[in-house]
């Protein structure tokens, strides 16, 4: 015959008292809490069998809006201008009655033919183009002086013993001749003599793109006794 196995009590962790074990008192605490909750609900039901909430109403101030009556505007139209009086026609013809007046008529604009083309003759007129002056540093070949004329020493400067140097800017045309004289710098007593000499110089014209061109050239003239 087998011996009955004795049931061991619930294992307790070390260092913990049985009174602090929640699992042992779980059922007891649950039933006590449920009873208390039911008792409180019954008491509340007896005291307040019905509950009705009163909605609070706020007093609203009335806002009165007054509308002003705006008078209706009307657009006034100006009356048409009065009819001009009829102007009698002054005439000496007995066939025209005195009450004939000038009436408004519509003018028909005549289409005039275009003016005739101007006839320049058999040959065509070619406008002469202004020759361009090229700066001397742009030309392929600069002008070379052929004829150089020394200026005459002015008598006033010679008697006064004045020496100096004058630079004359001249325009050399395509033929190598001096066409115009520009600025002259230096002592004014030598300006006229230097200008007269510069006009007599001749050059081989400057070349640009295998064609002679106009250029400005500076000519220095020195006036000294030696």
Write the layout of secondary structure elements.
Layout: H1 22-47, E1 144-147, H2 155-160, E2 164-172, E3 178-185, H3 191-198, E4 202-204, E5 206-208, E6 211-213, E7 215-223
Antiparallel strand pairs: 1-4, 2-3, 2-7, 5-6
Structure description:
- This protein is of the alpha+beta class and 226 residues long.
- It has a domain at 136-223: TolA/TonB C-terminal domain (2-Layer Sandwich), CATH 3.30.2420.10.
- The protein has three helices and seven strands, in the order H-E-H-E-E-H-E-E-E-E.
- The protein has helices at 22-47, 155-160, 191-198, and strands at residues 144-147, 164-172, 178-185, 202-204, 206-208, 211-213, 215-223.
- The chain has a three-stranded antiparallel β-sheet, with helices on one face. The protein has a two-stranded antiparallel sheet with strand order 1-4. Strands 5-6 form a two-stranded antiparallel ribbon.
- The model is unreliable at 123-128 (pLDDT under 50).
Strand order of the largest sheet: 3-2-7
- Name the overall outline: elongated
**Average of per-residue pLDDT values:** 77
Q: In the CATH classification, which architecture of one domain applies?
A: 2-Layer Sandwich
Please give a handful of descriptors for the protein shown.
18% helix; 7 strands; 3-stranded antiparallel beta sheet; 226 residues; alpha+beta
């Amino acid at each position: 015959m087998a011996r009955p196995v004795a049931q061991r009590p619930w294992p307790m962790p070390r260092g913990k008292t049985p009174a602090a074990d929640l699992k042992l008192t779980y059922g007891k605490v649950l039933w006590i809490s449920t009873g208390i909750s039911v008792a409180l609900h019954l008491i509340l039901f007896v005291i307040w069998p019905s509950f009705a909430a009163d909605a609070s109403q706020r007093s609203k101030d009335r806002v009165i809006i007054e509308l002003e009556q705006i008078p209706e505007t009307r657009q006034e139209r100006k009356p048409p201008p009065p009819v001009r009086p009829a102007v009698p026609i002054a005439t000496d013809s007995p066939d025209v009655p005195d009450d004939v007046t000038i009436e408004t008529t519509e003018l028909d604009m005549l289409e005039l033919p275009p003016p005739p083309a101007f006839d320049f003759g058999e040959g065509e007129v070619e406008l002469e183009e202004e020759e361009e002056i090229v700066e001397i540093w742009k030309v392929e070949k600069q002008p070379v002086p052929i004829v150089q004329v020394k200026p005459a020493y002015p008598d006033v400067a010679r008697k006064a013993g004045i020496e100096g140097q004058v630079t004359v800017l001249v325009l050399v045309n395509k033929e190598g001749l001096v066409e115009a004289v520009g600025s002259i710098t230096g002592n004014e007593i030598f300006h006229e003599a230097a200008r007269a000499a510069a006009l007599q110089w001749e050059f081989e014209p400057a070349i640009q793109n295998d064609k002679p061109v106009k250029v400005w050239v500076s000519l220095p003239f020195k006036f000294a006794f030696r």
